[in-house]
Amino acid sequence: MNRVSAPLSRRGPGRWTALAASLLLATGGLAVTGPSPADAAADPVAVTVNANAGLATVPETALGVNHAIWDSQLGTNETSDLLKAAGVRMMRYPGGSYADIYHWRDHTAPGGYVAPNTDFDTFMAAARRVGAQPMIIANYGTGTPAEAADWVRYANVTKGYGAKWWTVGNENYGNGHYGSAWEADDHPDKSASQYARLVVDYADAMKAVDPTIKVGAVLTMPGNWPDGITAGSDPGPWNRTVLAIAGPKIDFVDVHWYPGGTAAESLARTAHIDEAAHLLRDQLARYAGPNAARIGISFTELNVGTGQNTQPGALFLADAYSDLLENGVFTVQWWNVHNGIGTVSQVAGQTDYGDFGLLSSGTCTADNSVCEPPLNTPFAPYHGLSMMNLFARPGDQFVRAATDQPLVTAHAVRRADGDLAVLLVNKDPENARPVTIDYAGFTPSAAAPTTYSLTNGASGVVTGQSGSAASRTLPAYSLTTLVLRPSSPVTAHPAPPGQPTASGVTDRSATISWSPAPPKGAPIAKYEVYRQNGTVSEQLGETAGTSFTVDNLVPGTRYTLNVLTRDTAGKVSWSSSPVTFTTTGPAESSCTVRLTTASDWGNGWVGNVEIVNNGANPVDGWTLTWSWPTSWQQVSSGWSATWTQTGRTVTVASTDDNRRIAAGGSTTAGFVGAYSGPNVPPTGFVLNGTPCTVG
User: Fold this and answer.
1) How confident is the model at residue 51 (pLDDT cuts 50, 70, 90)?
2) Which residues pair with 649 in a beta bridge?
3) Per-residue confidence (pLDDT) for residue 574, from 0 to 100
4) What predicted TM-score, i.e. pTM, was given to this entire model?
């Protein structure tokens, strides 16, 4: 973030310009309307937690924030101690778009403001006081690979800081290449291809100084501008182009996300995260070259469009951090520590100062009519971050949790001591929500859970011990964490197996392999393979070995599997980490379908569907069907066929002009599609009841 101007200014990274803002808002559209108070009281939310459906493990670097060189409080002990208390373990420097004008040697940012006592050594002293790892942004826009390499040398050779994480640039797709320019870029060639080529040069120069560092490249969030857009002479959109060139040289990718819109829209758009993460990993696998699974994902800027320093910010922070970490992101970083007063409004009965900071800057409006609370007063998102620190600790494993109503979301982690923590987010600003909670793979003790609660307007998280594990009433606009003890000790249970992998994936089968569980307690009897069907675990098979071939799968379907260890005493381990794969279309079929993109403008696209008759006989009349992977994708209009959509299912029927497809022949139809979140391509097509090969 941070526009290159005055100190503590809100930086709208181009997305706050008219063009980008309109594009971002156009990708929304998942606003949720809550039921009436009577409905809320009569219809408890059903929460399901499946402790056997394991997700990602919480990394040491999970909870992060941004520090900016225009923040005079960057190096103060008071600020650092507040961040430490909230559990911050990674801090980003020197601050959003300022990174692309910042020169570390003389601590200057031409065209921007640099506050006193914000140099690199001061930042590192603050990071050490907090106990956080640094993430440093090398200047791409007005810098050079040599300048970045010298910074690595100073940090890790001269000073011995051991700074591991380095990103090349900030939001470099905002350099004007796509028509909107907020990011400084002095290179005559502003293409994605040129950025990627220089990322390679930066990585080579920086790792020549310290081969142990990790170098990251900037990508855009799937489903957000300029995702899907190809500009100039680039061979494809930004992400594809950057990964194809720089993929073999980078260690992680760096993504930002500002969902925009009203408070309700921002809070609802966390539903996009699973599919965005899936698309990012798919892009890595497709374009980043061999061993792309080694490339990590960081989300280093995040904030809401409305209610930045009131309860919507806190709810969004906890919900989004949890969703991203469940998907294996290694750090999520809030924008920002201090940011300054913006447009003042009332949000859910509280004064919102339009401040993107976690902590008050103590500033006033230009006419001094409204002033923020005293300097370093924590805002609601700070308390949301503190809640995350209480909920998901390094080493905890996220497990699958879900609800049956969109205004309440749930997340859960399993801990090494056997405890289970459940985070419940009530996004309804007006109504308390009663919930009932059902558990699989975990039996809570009869003791009252430890509870942590953050309510609208509260000055902090309240701790208590009350109620039962089975039901609770969530205050309006609140965060609630329950920490549950197990009904029996877990020390004698076997260890889980290693990370599973999938190989030999076809339309109907896949082979899952894993490393054996380390010895612990009774001997291992077998391993059990489960599919995650939402929060339900469906056993697919078992084996005494360390691989298993899963059969009878559905073509073009995404599967997420876990493996559990069972010992000879009948005790079951924690879940392994998940493995996700998508079955292919059939290798041979009487039909082939090719879906291609003719153009894409960030929230809509033109698609062409080619149907090939591989059979020996002509097709006389045809109906093609597929299902969109998400609820926010749709066909707006189409041609050369009769197009309908019911729910997620698209049906394309022949017309009199093209009903006959000769043996070996083909026909083509087209459509205009719309999407208000990540545009995930369909993976399976059926023609007249027959699954087709996907071309």
Assistant:
1) very high
2) 627, 646
3) 92
4) 0.93
In this structure, the number of other CB atoms found within 10 A of the CB of residue 39 comes to: 10
Q: Mind spelling out the 3-state secondary structure of 358-398?
A: CECCCCECCCCCCECCCCCCECHHHHHHHHHHHHCCCCCEE
Strand duo 649-653 + 642-646: pairing: antiparallel
SS3 state at 185: coil
pLDDT tens digit sequence for 629-687: 999 999 999 999 999 999 999 999 999 999 999 999 999 999 999 999 999 999 999 99
| 577 confidence band (pLDDT: 50, 70, 90) | very high
Q: Locate the DSSP E strands across 262-419.
A: 296-302, 331-334, 345-347, 350-352, 397-403, 408-414
Residue-wise pLDDT tens digits, 427-453:
999 999 999 999 999 999 999 999 999
Sheet hosting strand 510-513, strand order edge to edge: 501-503, 510-513, 547-550
Phi first, then psi, for residue 524 (nearest 5°) are -75, 130
Residue type, 516: P
Question: Which conformational region is residue 96 in: left (phi greater than 0), alpha (psi within -120 to 50 degrees), or beta?
Answer: left
Question: Do β-strands 686-687 and 397-403 pair in parallel, antiparallel, or remain unpaired?
Answer: unpaired
Q: Judge whether 320 and 309 are in contact, CB under 8 Å.
A: no
What are the structural domains, with CATH classification, of the chain? 45-49+410-484 (2.60.40.1180), 55-397 (3.20.20.80), 499-583 (2.60.40.10), 591-694 (2.60.40.290)
Return the closest-CA partner of residue 127 out of 75, 56, 179.
75
Q: Tell me how far apart the alpha carbons of residues 48 and 206 are, in angstroms, rounded to a whole number.
A: 47
The CA–CA distances, whole Å, from 670 to 242, 589, 625, 636 equal: 29, 23, 14, 11
The number of residues in the chain equals 695
CA-nearest of 93, 77, 132, 128 to 2 is 93
Average confidence (pLDDT) over 576-602: 95
Rounded to the nearest 10°, the torsion over CA 140, 141, 144, 150 is -60
Taking each helix axis from N to C end, the angle separating 311-326 and 273-287, rounded to the nearest 10 degrees, works out to 40
179: left (phi over 0), alpha (psi -120 to 50) or beta: left
Those residues with Cβ within 8 angstroms of residue 74's Cβ, 6 or more apart along the chain or in another chain? 67, 68, 115, 117, 118, 122, 123, 126, 337
Q: What is the pLDDT of residues 356-411, one digit of tens each?
A: 999 999 999 999 999 999 999 999 999 999 999 999 999 999 999 999 999 999 99
Q: Which of 365, 366, 374, 384 is nearest to 307 (CA)?
A: 384
d(Cα 379, Cα 244) in Å, to the nearest integer?
41
